[in-house]
Protein 1
Amino acid sequence: MSGFNSYEKRRKPNYYAQQHRRPKEFSLKPGLKGFICSCNNREKECIREAYNILNEYADKFFPEQKAQVTTRPNQRKFQILESGASNFLFIQTTVPDPLLLVTKIMEDVYQTKKQKARFIQRLLPVEVTCKAHIEDVRAAFEPLLEKYFTTEVKTFSIIFEKRNSHALDRNKVIEVLAEMVALKNIGNQADLKQPQLAVLVEVVRNMCLLSVLPNYYMYKKYNLFELSQTEQDKKSDEDIVSTEAGVVSSEADISTEAGVVSTEAGIVSTEAGIVSTEAGVVSTEAGIVSTEAGVVSTEVGVVSSEADVSTEVGVVSSEADVSTEVGVVSSE
């Protein structure tokens, strides 16, 4: 019996770990399409908000899928999957064109300036996923190359981002994909400031997510909050920042003035100490003078006493002379 209990103790940690392990069907794998949602810690709220926005626009632009209701996760129109990074969500989709759906969302927000999201920061389409190996990336990018860069001359840039991964070298990926775009159409040129198309390469753990995004910078890097900002909102934000900067500057000035006053007070205190010291010196010197005056007075008294004694001696001497003279007369 004791042997069975010890076996149970050894088995429990691994047993419960397996029970809580997320099934593979809910994890990222090659061959998927969907959406990236970035957020700031509020992942549950972000997922709920993403479902609402995606369903709203999917029902509007893909009505044929509206009636499709299924309980199987891999057949749902939108299904959250484990991405392998915090604040980085991947939502798998059965929508035929995730780029078209996100483009419709961005166009609407850009034109109306209506704030659609509180928790989602960026909403990006993913057209294909693959393993994070350079040959897999090359093979996965080939259909996108045919779709976007063959017929018309385009300016492009390559956006490379990586999370929780040591796979793939940034410079190598950019070099390979840029060469593929240039060889597909000799007129295609790189433009890092305002490209017509941005090739997005997102690497998370051992997976790579690819998409080609139009108007990347015009749509504020597909940031829903920034895209909804009007010029008045931006001005208000700038005024707030300017006011806060002014308050900080005023506080700094007050602190400086306080330092100056404190320094001046220290100087006055020091000067007062110096005056006090000088007064003490004067007082000491006065005491010395007073003492010297006392000594002089004493010496004068002594001299005066000696003079009195001398006078008395002179008087006695005079009396003695008179007595002598009297004695002389008497003898005569």
Protein 2
Amino acid sequence: MILSPSGPRTEGPDEDGFYTTYFEGPSFNGTFGEIRSRVEGSVARVRIATGPGRANPLGALHGGFLLGFLDQAVFVGPATLGRLVMPNWAVTLNFATQFMAPGRADLPLDCVIEVVSETGKLLFLRGQMEQERQALLTFQATLRKIRLGG
């Protein structure tokens, strides 16, 4: 399934101020299911549930899962902040990541995202993934904004 220009389905906010975005269907994005996000000052907090299916053989969160979630979060975060509005979207141009600590598969995973700069076509982001406020991964990312359907 290819997402329509309206994108994934979103509901909220809940009692904690989180909006829920549902990635559905057989595409790669569908493997992430429910992702929650909220604005916290000048940053967005993007949250996903973890579990044994997202762990490596040592029981920590798999690095591939962390990077895959990061590639979802860098879109959900700016959309939550009102910086990406449908039908405008973006593609990932660049990631720089640093793994700092193992993640636990029994706690939710948060990605805190800041928009550092924006031009007509580019978004420059930075942030970190964390559990219980402990940094697991830091990143910088660049997105290229595109306009779908015209």
Protein 3
Amino acid sequence: MPRDGASDEKALVRIRLESDAGGEKQEQSLEGEWYSKNRTIYLRYEETEGANLVRTLLSWKDGRLRLVRQGDVESEQIFSAGGRHSGYYRSDNVQFRWRRRRLFSES
């Protein structure tokens, strides 16, 4: 049940992912779920490549975007205007962490 006047909504969505890795462009069309819960907007979808599966969850609240990937690749990235955030990336081949200073700032 919604709290504080927030409405909870859900919808199935089609997502188009475009990537450019090392000059190789790829495009994927995926199905996902968009929903709103407790004043946060979420987008959830799964990517498969061969036997590999990665579940992705994007969340947006109060000017902050959080990207979490789980499965054969695991990572977390957070973005906000002028924010300083840390993150990580893990796969079978590589693992690293980072701390980002100000990504950008609003004028």
Protein 4
Amino acid sequence: MGEIYNILKRERNKKGIYNCSEMTFFRNFKGILKSNPIFNKYLEIDNDFDIIRANIIIKSIINKDELDNIINDMYIANANVGVESIKDDIKEKISDLPYISYDNFKIYIPFFNKATNIIYSNESEKMFQYPYVSLFKKFEPFFVDAFETYNIDLFNSLFTQLVKISESNTSVAFYHYEFNAIFIINRQGTLDNIIYLFDKHMKNPHKYNIIEKVRPLVNAYYDNDLSLFIYLLYKNDLVSYYVFRKICKLYQV
């Protein structure tokens, strides 16, 4: 099916993509990735998946800064208050931050492992003790690769705009409403495929009930049923007749 994805990418309707919230967020906050050389690799953008990955890291950095400030301020302002009371107040203040549900625990900073996240969320008094005091400024010894550590869970979280459609033993399919695309992400957290929909030849694409429309398409993808996949692209109003015929001609179906 490889050439189908190339056709869909070439015929993609890019109108409005540049100003969508995902792209705008990246443009507005990408400077944060320059705050530490450890994040520089996320400035290298080749596709929309890289934008999603970069925004996850940006939000993680913002979370860390927020947590650092809250913890520092709470312990300074409430020096005479019990530690448990302070920790309860911290939990309340961070409740609206994006997180990953991982092993029945909320991970607020994905570039730290679970043990370090527990320090932030449940044992914050240790932040003022060695070696954790370095987390405020020189946190490199605690750094982990977020995507190698949390894999697919990172994409199925509040750090992204992705909506889960379906899954197989090896990957999970998500839909992104702004990019008008299906992202097939393997369980190691790397990209398998992007399936772009609603091409530039569609004058008034019908985008209602999109998850219901794309789910059978994803099932055909997982079944490796080429004919059904091509048929559903057009039947479910996901591509124009022009693109449909172009694909049919290529595969002689």
